[in-house]
Amino acid sequence: MRQDYHLSTGVITDYPLGFIMRFKGAALASVVLCLATVAAGASAAAAQSDPSLPAPRLTDFSYQTPLPAGSVEGIRGQVILPAGADAAGLTLDVTRTLAGTPTADFTVTTKSGGDFALADVPPNVAGTYVYDFSYPGGTTYGPASQQVSIPVVPSHPTLGLSGPDEAILGRQVHVTGRLFFTSDSGSPVVSGNAPSDTEVTVTRTGGGLAPVTVPSSDVVDDGFGFNDQPSAIGVYTYKASYAGSGDIASASASLNVNVQRVTALSIATSSSSLGYDGTVTVTAHLGTTQAKRVVLLFAQTVGSSATRTVAADTVNSQGNLTTSVRLGNSTTFTARFEGDTLDTPAAASTTVSVGVKVASALSARTYHEKATLKDAVTITPDKHGQCVELQVQRYYKKAWHTVTTTPCGHLNGKSQATLTLKLGATTGQYRVRIYYIHSASDKSNASTYGGWLDFQIVR
């Protein structure tokens, strides 16, 4: 009798010897070799899936449930081997089915500690998807399997765009967006991220230009972004669209960006410095704008936070607005344009330095060489606590030369000081003047020299 091993059933079947004897020579050898090979393969297969071997455990599964249609599902788990052995490097077969029909096959490999992960996007059709994780077994461990059931529910996408409300012509506009899916019903309402290869189409209209399609990245971690540089001023509308499919509706979002040109605005004064109570002419110049042509002029005393309006009007045909202002203090002038729909707001400033009024009581023109020069000084505006000096020069060798300067005389509460200087000098031609020296605490007026008074020293 001849016995054969059946791979599928593990049953041994007897055959009469005469059955084999029908084959002769090489044919008989081929048949015997074939049967031996099948038997050997069957023995190996039986060893691989031997249920008597210790089996690993597939456990610690985590995943999102329910899952909004169109979202990425991340399933994590762990393989634990008997006796605490490291389960790294094991290959698991995964089959995804819907209503008993396989829809996809995957393989995953365990990492150190036996951890594994599967990222999948089920078809955009609602239903319960079953993931069958299986380990086929081997020569050391037996087979193991575990199923995970995940309900996929109908969903609607949420699509949003964000970016600046205003942008400058010639500069890039950066727009970002986000796409995720939210279940239509259920408690609680759940949401999921869009897969990284989801396509979002972005178009741009406006600015007097033909509509264009703006390049945008595919969704990455449910977000996307792009840069754009419109070539003309105007209000642009960016519209992002997701087509939808299956049990996912379409979605769109829009963002308006007002692209403006930078407004040219300048300011100038007839002088950068003035004497006390002097008059300065201030001119603001406005470049090309779309609509508004009104410029505001403000004055602010240096060191003060208060401002006052000195002019507010439409510029002339040359784009200029001019006014004259009388000043008793150093002043910063600011021109301001409020902007319009297509032109940015703009401002420009300049500062005019203003001195003080120096009053001297000196009137004598001749002094004895041993006399004392005495001067009562008054400074306007009130500068009490500040410093004044007398500076004396002598004329010789066809030039004036400074010979002495008095120490600082501090102004009293009436902004006055008395300065004295014992002459004791060589006879000759002299001149004297007052010097007001402002300190760091006085920002409203500049240091100022008074006028020269000529005198002679005689014996």
Describe the fold and architecture.
- The chain is mainly beta and 459 residues long.
- It has 5 domains: 2-48; 57-153, Immunoglobulins (Immunoglobulin-like); 158-259, Immunoglobulin-like (Sandwich); 265-354, Sandwich (Immunoglobulin-like); 357-458, Immunoglobulin-like (Sandwich).
- Helix content is 6%, strand content 53%.
- The protein contains 2 helices and 37 strands.
- It has helices spanning 17-21, 25-48; strands spanning 2-5, 12-15, 57-62, 67-68, 73-80, 91-98, 101-109, 115-120, 127-135, 144-153, 155-162, 166-168, 173-183, 191-193, 201-206, 209-214, 223-228, 234-242, 251-260, 265-269, 273-274, 278-286, 294-301, 308-314, 320-327, 331-337, 346-354, 357-360, 366-368, 372-380, 387-396, 399-405, 409-410, 416-422, 428-437, 448-449, 453-458.
- Strands 29, 31, 32, 33, 35, 36 and 37 form a 7-stranded mixed β-sheet that branches. It has a 5-stranded mixed β-sheet with strand order 4-10-9-6-7, with no helix packed on it.
- A hairpin with a 2-residue loop joins strand 15 (201-206) and strand 16 (209-214).
- The N and C termini lie far apart (162 Å).
- Mean pLDDT is 86; it is low at 1-48.
